[in-house]
């Protein structure tokens, strides 16, 4: 039931603050001081390397998680798309833990990658939305994301719940490995618990994304740029737009543009720059200026202070609430989803059942 929304995707975007709150309550204890994992838990002190494998949107969640685990838990992370992973025949060294992320828990390539790691990895973990799924059943420990049933083919609430679960795991790892003391952990957990409220505020950008969608719907190609943990978000924005609006969209790491793709930029190509005010903000803005100097139309997604610092000449801006850079990848999923949704609606495509796609991909 669409609960009064025009599409399941719209409903699922809107319910993110609520489902996220449920997921947070599941993984953070009542006084907000500790992470609670299902038994038998994970001993992060014994892990030398984490291998993250998934497809599509779940893969972009892994890409974000790599930044988190490496930066705050100092844990080396390898990631790959499931359809390539086992063909590399990756050597698996002692101390390796494999983690598979899948909304459905039935994606054929992800399941095959999991089976490749059976008997090779010390432990097999999964982050799933469907607890009875094959991937959950074949893991040593399955962590539910608690997003509730997701019907829209374009994944939305599963992505933010995957990210939230992975962020909590990264915090747990950071604490266990001695890189985060109790106070710092409690502060980050408080930040997470405040996130549903901030998401509700951020959802107010919806009317703005609706306005911009009519302009984006005219484009043939759209580029998404991001740096650091926003680079995977650029990918997620491009994937969402391709899937449901059928507009060709590509994501690049902001700094990579000048190595080739900037040749594509002209006044017909909107360039969507995802730039929360994090440690990399100034660099992203200087990449944005390179685009503008070549006549590119920049749609900047940042907060009010960021928009001020970015200066003149930006085509359009979406103003986001301020956010701890650690949590920005979760919050900035909302503009990525809403832009894709409203552009698809403006184009009149089948939002919930886009052509050529299935909700669960059970062939390799
Ligand atoms: O069920 P899974 O999370 O394993 O599915 C993975 C991808 O097929 C999925 O995320 C796909 O990319 C979505 N349609 C993206 O919106």
UniProtKB/TrEMBL annotation:
The active site is at residue 359. Signal peptide: none annotated. Keywords: Aminotransferase, Cytoplasm, Glutamine amidotransferase, Repeat, Transferase. The keyword Cytoplasm applies. It catalyses: D-fructose 6-phosphate + L-glutamine = D-glucosamine 6-phosphate + L-glutamate. It comes from the Bacteria. Its EC number is 2.6.1.16. The keyword Electron transport does not apply. Residues 34-179, 212-354 form the SIS domain. Its main location: cytoplasm. It is found in: Cytoplasm. Homodimer. Catalyzes the first step in hexosamine metabolism, converting fructose-6P into glucosamine-6P using glutamine as a nitrogen source. This is Glutamine--fructose-6-phosphate aminotransferase [isomerizing]. The gene is glmS. The chain holds residues 244 to 607 of 607 of the full protein.
């Amino acid at each position: 039931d669409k609960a009064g929304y025009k599409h399941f995707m719209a409903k699922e975007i809107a319910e993110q603050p609520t489902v996220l709150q449920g997921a947070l309550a599941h993984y953070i204890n009542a006084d907000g001081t500790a992470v609670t994992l299902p038994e038998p838990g994970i001993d992060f002190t014994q892990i030398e390397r984490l291998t993250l494998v998934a497809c599509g949107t779940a893969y972009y969640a892994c890409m974000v998680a790599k930044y988190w685990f490496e930066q705050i838990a100092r844990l080396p992370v390898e990631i790959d798309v499931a359809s390539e992973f086992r063909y590399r025949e990756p050597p698996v060294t002692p101390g390796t833990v494999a983690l598979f992320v899948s909304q459905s828990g039935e994606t054929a390539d992800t399941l095959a990658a999991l089976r490749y790691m059976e008997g090779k990895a010390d432990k097999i973990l999964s982050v799933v939305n469907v607890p009875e799924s094959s991937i959950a059943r074949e893991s040593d420990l399955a962590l539910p994301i608690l997003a509730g049933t997701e019907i829209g083919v374009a994944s939305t609430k599963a992505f933010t719940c995957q990210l939230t679960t992975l962020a909590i795991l990264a915090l747990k790892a950071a604490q266990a490995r001695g890189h985060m003391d109790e106070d710092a952990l409690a502060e980050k957990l408080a930040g997470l618990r405040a996130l549903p409220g901030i998401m509700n505020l951020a959802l107010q950008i919806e009317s703005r994304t609706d306005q911009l969608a009519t302009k984006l719907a005219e484009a043939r190609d759209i580029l998404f740029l991001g740096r650091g943990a926003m680079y995977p978000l650029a990918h997620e924005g491009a994937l969402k737009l391709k899937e449901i609006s059928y507009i060709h969209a590509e994501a690049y790491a902001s700094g990579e543009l000048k190595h080739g793709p900037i040749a594509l930029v002209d006044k017909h190509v909107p360039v969507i720059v995802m730039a929360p005010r994090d440690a990399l903000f100034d660099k992203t803005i200087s990449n944005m200026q390179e685009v503008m100097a070549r006549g590119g139309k920049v749609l900047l997604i940042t907060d009010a202070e960021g928009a001020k610092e970015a200066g003149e000449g930006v085509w359009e801006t979406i103003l986001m609430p301020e956010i701890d850079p650690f949590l920005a990848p979760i919050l900035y999923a909302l503009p990525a989803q809403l832009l894709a949704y409203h552009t698809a609606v403006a184009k009149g495509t089948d939002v919930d059942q886009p052509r050529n796609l299935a909700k669960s991909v059970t062939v390799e």
